[in-house]
């Protein structure tokens, strides 16, 4: 059974003439991590909120774990767990209260709720702050409380809308490990993120949304192939003739003092020799998801960044 199946899903907010989400058909396989990528305002949260039964579609349909998210919202809610974007914990409640109370609300008995609360607070390194009111915790710790609440619950489908925003690199890895554990137990996940490394590490399937429509979908491997060249070479800008570089492929100014040439493996040798001869530092790497994202939705031609 599909975890999520949307057909021509469309949302037009009241008073708005353009659709925030337009004709989006997405299939999320169960026991997989499906990631939505897109620029600010692309429509990711709008999709998540409709799938999580928090927002009504204007047109189209969406079913979650076999239930219609509009007509059978009650059934859907019992099977899902959500980390909302910009959620806030309650000021006076501690991490322990948040997770433990939430588990009880979701119907766990006291003993199991206690075990699960301990387990997730350990995993996310919140145990030492378990009794500190949320108002006295840092921004990242507050975010971790929301993630802990969602991950502690026994549900079939997890919605994570930018779960690691504001988290330090170690904490992010703890959340990634917890997400992978969730999947290993057979759970499904819909993730949104602006961190391309996070998307590369976690995703089984990715959809890139731009201005409300899906512009690309596939595995990381599929998406990498969207850029015709498979290799990128970054070379210090100093005194390099851009037109000459362009004969090797497309050239982008990274804005960090280097030019990025998208090219083929066959050019690596020539381009490295050229850089070495001029004593310019350079790096060679495969095309990343970040490159594909900018290529698809970066609008570089009009933004003037393309060198
Ligand atoms: N409650 C609302 N009322 C009216 N318009 C809204 C509302 N919520 C979102 N929008 C609009 O819908 C569009 C999509 O917003 P959405 O929050 O889905 O984007 P997003 O992809 O999640 O962006 P971000 O990466 O910044 O979180 C935007 O143009 C936004 O202004
Ligand atoms: Mg959003």
Helix/strand layout:
Elements lengths: L1 E10 L9 E9 L3 E6 L5 H8 L7 E6 L2 E2 L4 H7 E4 L11 H11 L4 H14 L15 H14 L4 E5 L7 H16 L3 E5 L3 H7 L2 E6 L2 E6 L1 H5 L6 E6 L5 H5 L3 E4 L4 E6 L4 H10 L4 E5 L2 H9 L2 H4 L4
Parallel strand pairs: 3-8, 3-9, 6-7, 7-8
Antiparallel strand pairs: 1-2, 1-4, 4-5, 9-10, 11-13, 11-14, 12-13
Helix pairs in contact: 3-4, 3-5, 4-5
* Principal-axes shape call: globular
CATH names the topology of the largest domain as Rossmann fold
Supply the CATH class of the largest domain.
Alpha Beta
Structural class: alpha/beta
Q: What portion of residues is helical?
A: 25-40%
Gap from first CA to last CA: 47 Å
Bound molecules: adenosine-5'-triphosphate, magnesium ion
Q: How would you spell out the order of helices and strands?
A: EEEHEEHEHHHEHEHEEHEHEEHEHH
User: What's the CATH architecture name of the largest domain?
Assistant: 3-Layer(aba) Sandwich
**Number of beta strands:** 14
Q: How does the major sheet shape up?
A: 6 strands, mixed
What is the H level of CATH, i.e. the homologous superfamily of the largest domain?
P-loop containing nucleotide triphosphate hydrolases
Stretches where pLDDT is under 50 for at least 5 consecutive residues are: none
What is the C-alpha radius of gyration, as a whole number of Å? 22 Å
Overall tally of domains = 2
- Beta-strand content estimate: 25-35%
Average residue-wise pLDDT:
94
């Amino acid at each position: 059974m599909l975890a999520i199946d949307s057909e021509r899903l469309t949302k037009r907010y009241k008073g708005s003439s353009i659709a925030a989400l337009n004709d989006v058909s997405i299939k999320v396989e169960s026991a997989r991590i499906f990631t939505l990528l897109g620029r600010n305002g692309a429509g990711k949260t709008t999709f998540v909120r409709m799938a999580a039964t928090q927002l009504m579609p204007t047109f189209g349909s969406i079913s979650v774990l076999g239930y219609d998210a509009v007509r059978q919202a009650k059934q859907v809610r019992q099977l899902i767990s959500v980390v909302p974007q910009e959620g806030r914990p309650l000021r006076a409640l501690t991490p322990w209260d948040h997770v433990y109370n939430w588990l009880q609300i979701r119907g766990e008995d006291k003993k199991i709720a206690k075990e699960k609360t301990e387990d997730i607070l350990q995993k996310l390194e919140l145990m030492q702050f378990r009794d500190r009111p949320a108002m006295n915790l840092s921004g990242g710790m507050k975010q971790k409380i929301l993630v802990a609440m969602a991950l502690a619950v026994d549900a079939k489908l997890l919605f994570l809308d930018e779960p690691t925003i504001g988290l330090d690199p170690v904490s992010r890895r703890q959340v990634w490990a917890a997400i992978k554990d969730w999947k290993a137990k057979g759970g499904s996940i819909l993730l949104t993120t602006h961190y391309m490394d996070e998307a590369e590490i976690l995703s089984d399937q990715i959809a890139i949304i731009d201005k409300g429509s899906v512009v690309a979908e596939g595995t990381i491997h599929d998406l990498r192939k969207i850029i015709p060249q498979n290799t990128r070479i970054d070379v210090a800008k100093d005194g390099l003739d851009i037109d000459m570089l362009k004969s090797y492929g497309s050239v982008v100014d990274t804005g960090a003092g280097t030019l990025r040439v998208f090219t083929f493996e066959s050019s690596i040798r020539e381009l490295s020799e050229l850089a070495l001869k001029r004593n310019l530092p350079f790096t060679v790497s495969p095309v990343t998801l970040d490159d594909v994202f900018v290529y698809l939705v970066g609008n570089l031609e009009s933004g003037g960044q393309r060198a």
